[in-house]
Amino acid sequence: MELSEFEFFRRLFPHLPQGKGVVVGPGHDCARVRSGNREWLLTTDTLVEGTHFLRPWLSPFALGWRAFAVNASDIAAMGGRPRFVLVSAVVPASYSAAALTQLERGIAKAAGEVGASVVGGNLARGRQLEVTVTLVGEAPRQRLTRGGGQPGDAVLVSGTLGDAALAVHLLKEGGKPAGSLFRRWARPQARLALGQELAERRLATAMIDVSDGLVQDLGHLCRASGVAAVIEASRVPLSRSYLRHSGGVLDFALSGGEDYELLFTVPAAEVPAALALQERVGCTIRQIGELVAGDGVRVLDTSGGVLDLRTSGFDHFAKRRRHRDRGAIARNLASGSKRRAER
Ligand SMILES: [Mg+2]
Question: Which of 9, 72, 275, 313 is least surrounded by CB atoms within 10 angstroms?
Answer without folding.
Answer: 9
